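The passage that follows is intended for readers who have already worked through the single-chain material. We present the inputs for a multi-component assembly, then the predicted structure in tokenized form, and finally a short commentary. You are encouraged to pause after the input and sketch how you expect the pieces to fit together before reading on.
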Amino acid sequence: MKDYLKTLFEDASNKLDYLKINNAFFTIPNQKGHGDLSTNIAMILTKELKKNPREIANEIIENLNYDSTIIEKIEIAGPGFINFTFTPIFLSKIISQINEEKSAFGTSKKYFGKKANVEFVSANPTGPLTVGHGRNAVIGDTVANLLESVGYDVDREYYFNNAGRQMRVLGESVQLRYKALLGETVEFPEEYYQGEYIKEIAQLLIDEFGDKLLSEKDETVFKSKAETEIFKEIKATLENLDIKMKIFYNENSLYEEGKIDYVLAQFKEKDLSYEKDDAIWLKLTELGNEQDKVIVKSTGEPTYRLPDIAYHITKFNRGYDLIIDVFGSDHNATFPDVKAGIKALGFDAEKVDVLIHQFVTILEKGEVVKMSTRKANYITLDELTASVGKDVVRYFFNMRSLSSHLNFDIDLAKKQSEENPVFYLQYAHARISSILRVTIEQDLHASFVNFNLLNTEAEINLMKKLHQFQNEVLYSAENYEPHRIANYLEELAASFHRFYTECRILGSEVRLAEARISLVQAAQIVLKNGLSILGVTAPDSM
RNA sequence: GCGCCAGUAGCUCAAUCGGAUAGAGCAACAGCCUUCUAAGCUGUAGGUUAGUGGUUCGAGUCCACUCUGGCGUACCA
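Having made your guess, compare it with the prediction:
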């Protein structure tokens, strides 16, 4: 619908110069009676043209050379809105299109040929993923899905560090548990990793090596076993949510390949770093940030900023047109430094978009659960997925905007009752499958010839909703807003359920019944395509 | 102190570069199954969009200040 109006306005701009300057902007009015699409362009132009908006609107309409089989009416309303109402027969054409394009409906090729990298989760292998990581994981994967829907070639990437202090502590934790399991009395410091999984890893080492490792001087063996086991589990956790990373990028390789030294040398050469108190500082104030920051500590170890900058440079060098980082809000202070560093080294920081999502608050029995990996006070993502199912987890984390805090009520999610909106969508899909099973038994088949019979309000509303899908996908992808898809699908499902209640297929006259079959098929395809973007299954029965 | 995010119906949240009468779900109340899945549908009720001021044809949305909450503000990541 929007596309048609856009071409109409483009044509008209040959006669009305002022239409060239403005991109016509169409919205769906939230009020019934205000048409199917509306534009406020006349009001925007008021100042520039120094004319009454309704006058401008009139002039625009006179110059729109529209097809009356497509547009039923155009009205000027309120202070100067131009409202467009489409003909039912035009609306119904979407049914054929959807049935032809099937799973491709909603996708576009707008960004075809572009490469994107979406980095997410990126938790260091110090313990199982928690519910807190779940939001990051689901958002990252869904944004990747959205980008693929609009044509991007997307790589999903997980960045990790297996070298730092935390990992050392992890190794030592395993080592201590190992000794304890073999009967030695050990003191287990409070700041070490308390989780049960540490003991399990220690047990694996006993199974494998017996007590031979008691003589190990340092934690290396324990650390590397821990890393292997924990990563195995992390990957399994992600796969339980249908998330598959393409690349696991090890921070350590940046050192091994000299990329850290290179960046350091670059900063020095550009006179962007200096030494003070035995540390190396980056002149971030010169780059427009608040204060200079340390990039190499006096111990000789870099701070996270240096490898992060080097890491992002590899992304540029790997040829990505779009680079997305998904972070929790606890990282919101880190990226400005990194971005400034990248920019200073001559890379186009505009290609990098950082998605900061707010924290998940876990509620159990009405109480807030404070989470800490180290203290082993957490609910794992696996436990959650096991208890409520992949679909609920994915839907729940996708249904809110990133910037909004998310309350995850464990008890509510476990309920699996009608309070859970994901079932509403899946139910719509399953209902359609059921209809299609029955109609086939009755030898009724989809027909695309009598769409003029689809003229009740419920049918027309459903067709209008179907029209919206392509724009929703594009808009959600370009703005990284998975929750819009969830909201859209709830509206679509509502339109369908209303249709289902008011319009029957069995018992209707054959031509009408068969036209309705093609309509519900179209609705089912769109539900399925939308759910698939969210990573939620579309069941055929419930 | 400073920075980022938020504050919208009893609860959880939407609201498309600022648009028309701020919308859904859940919870509450009243109805709808002899016919394609009632995990559904219809209706009622529920609001000074935290507050104050400003910008303009028009503000939940933009600006300023205040209040409340989350996260940061490291030679941790």
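Commentary: The first helix of chain A runs from residue 2 to 12. Chain A has a mean pLDDT of 92. How closely did your sketch match?
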